[in-house]
Amino acid sequence: DKYKTYDYEVREIWCENDGQKIYGQAFVPKTDGRSPLIITSHGLGANHESGASYAKKYAPKGFAVYTFDFRGGSNKNNENKSDGSSLDMSVMTEVSDIDVILAAAKTWDFVDTDRIFLQGGSQGGLVTAISGMRHQDEVAGLILLYPAFGMVDFAKYLYSEDMQEETDISGITVGKKFFEDIKDYDVREEIADFTKPVLILQGSEDNIVLPSVTKEASELYPDSEYHIIDGAGHGFSGEYHDEATEYALDFLYRHI
């Protein structure tokens, strides 16, 4: 019921990947039964707070949300409570973080396991797209916010056998692994096989992830919706955030 609102509570839930801990917060609506779940992934250098801004809009509408810190995925300006170093982080280590979170989420008593959605922004959007494809039978759909599909091309362009061990990108220092893990990966070929519904939201003024890149990706998906948020840059705040959550809630209501 899109007109009903719920109180919610925030629970701290830790997951584990390869002996390292992942910190997260679950926003759990106080409903009578199990709720649909949205697992939300932050962009390069950010942390769980970026997902919390959406969780505060989704949870009162009856959707549980889990937002977390990728291992080694945050820059020095954003506190990261998970284990791991940014020098060991890559798109594919982040995909593996979602692997373990998705497995754990199926055991949580508040989750309707038939209605799990993945959401991600920027690099988190790319990670979400890859994870969704690999867990297609376990997820109900994807919400991709300015997904950084061009990151794969960027890695191919920068990678060389003799490149430096450390590289700074967007205020975060990454290791050679960051480039090695995706330099030979064809994201466009893989996403074309994802048949569940996909919502892509893109800012018209984004100069980091270009609208042309996300528009191309939207056309590769068999079942996708694509919306430009006019005036928004890379990341949605204020009225742009409100508009994004309206699109997202409409999408969620139609696919639960």
Keywords:
256 residues, 8 helices, alpha/beta, single chain
Structure write-up:
- The chain has 256 residues and is an alpha/beta fold.
- The chain has 8 helices and 10 strands.
- It has helices at residues 49-58, 91-105, 123-134, 150-158, 176-180, 187-191, 211-220, 238-255; strands at 8-17, 20-29, 35-41, 64-68, 111-121, 141-145, 166-169, 172-175, 198-203, 224-229.
- Helix 7 (211-220) links the parallel strand 9 and strand 10.
- Helix 2 packs across helix 3 (123-134).
- The protein is globular, with a radius of gyration of 17 Å.
- The model has no long low-confidence stretch (mean pLDDT 95).
- Helix tally equals 8
Q: How are the strands of the biggest sheet laid out side by side?
A: 1-2-4-3-5-6-9-10
Strand content: 25-35%
Largest sheet: 8 strands, mixed
